[in-house]
Structures are given as structure tokens and as C-alpha cells.
Amino acid sequence: MLHITRIAMQHPLYQQERELRNKILLRPIGVPDYGWEMNDSKSWHFVAIDDAKVIGCVLLVPLDENVQIGQLIQMAVDHHWQGKGVGKKLVKDLVAFAKTKEFTEIVIHSRAEVTSFYEALGFKTFGDEFEEVGVVHRHLRMSL
Ligand SMILES: CC(C)(COP(=O)(O)OP(=O)(O)OC[C@H]1O[C@@H](n2cnc3c(N)ncnc32)[C@H](O)[C@@H]1OP(=O)(O)O)[C@@H](O)C(=O)NCCC(=O)NCCS
Fold this sequence. Notes:
Structural class: alpha+beta
Helix content: 10-25%
Order of helices and strands: EHEEEHEHEE
Bound molecules: coenzyme A
Largest sheet: 7 strands, mixed
């Protein structure tokens, strides 16, 4: 049965999380496997699990020393599971967790094609388009 949990990098499921990110986020845009892990050690990792397999993930990384502003990064749901509410559950859990940690704001660099996914969850788009890893992105934020 599907459930969402938070894991540390020492957890055996972390390797599955990395593979999912390679497959869903990095390879399709030509970034080498394991090429976007510079924030992993300082992030909280949320994974969606079905039948002992990681089928979705998202990370929350604090952007400042006071841990008030966090960035949602590395949002990915496996192909077969997309459109079934997994992404929504992951973001809701991450936001609920950020509130317990007294974050005041969550920001996102969203691929331009998926901003409406985040907007439906309460994030607001702001600023101009920009390019990151060769893909057009938009800024989004949510005050907590
Ligand atoms: C974008 C992504 C994370 C969404 O996760 P998901 O589990 O497929 O989304 P959900 O099923 O929870 O959808 C929640 C809502 O967002 C909508 N939605 C889903 N994918 C969307 C997309 N790509 N663009 C716009 N809206 C989208 C759904 O229609 C749904 O709306 P509803 O509540 O009215 O039915 C997932 O499709 C994915 O991993 N895509 C590839 C990687 C990617 O683009 N990651 C984001 C990088 S910024």
C-alpha cells in the first residue's frame, strides 16, 4: 500500500530514491546520473513507497542558517504512478513538515511546464522565466 515517509541518506531506500531521480529528472534532460546531489546531505528526503519500492520523492533544503526559508527540490514521480495523486501527497507532507519546523517560506525553481501542478497546491509564481540545467524554469513561493 502506498505511503509517504521521511528517510535519511543512510536508509537503504535512499539508493532507490537516487535511481528514481536519475531516471525521471536527470536523464531526460541530459544531466549525468547522480549529477544533482550537492544538497542531499543538508536536505530532508520524502519518499513515496509502494510495495517496498520508491515510486516518488521530493526534498526540502534549508536556504539560510536560521532555517526559515526552504527550497522544494528534486520532485519526481515514476512514470506509471504519475497523475495518481502521489506528487500532491508528497508536497502536502513536505509543507506540513516545514510548518512543524517553523519555516516561514518555501520556494521552488519549477520547470515552466509544471507550474500549474504547484499552483494548485497553493504556491504562487513570481518573477521572470529563467534557465537552469538547460530547461526554462519559473520561481514559485508559498508563505507558511
Ligand atoms: C510533475 C509531477 C511531480 C506531478 O506528480 P504527479 O503524482 O504526477 O501529480 P498528481 O497526480 O499528484 O497531480 C496533482 C494535480 O496536479 C496536476 N498535474 C499533474 N502533473 C502535472 C503537470 N505536469 N502539469 C500540470 N499539472 C499537473 C494533476 O492533474 C492533478 O490535478 P487534480 O488534483 O486537479 O486532479 C510528476 O508528473 C513528475 O514527476 N513529472 C516529471 C518530473 C518533473 O517534471 N518534476 C518536477 C520538476 S520541477
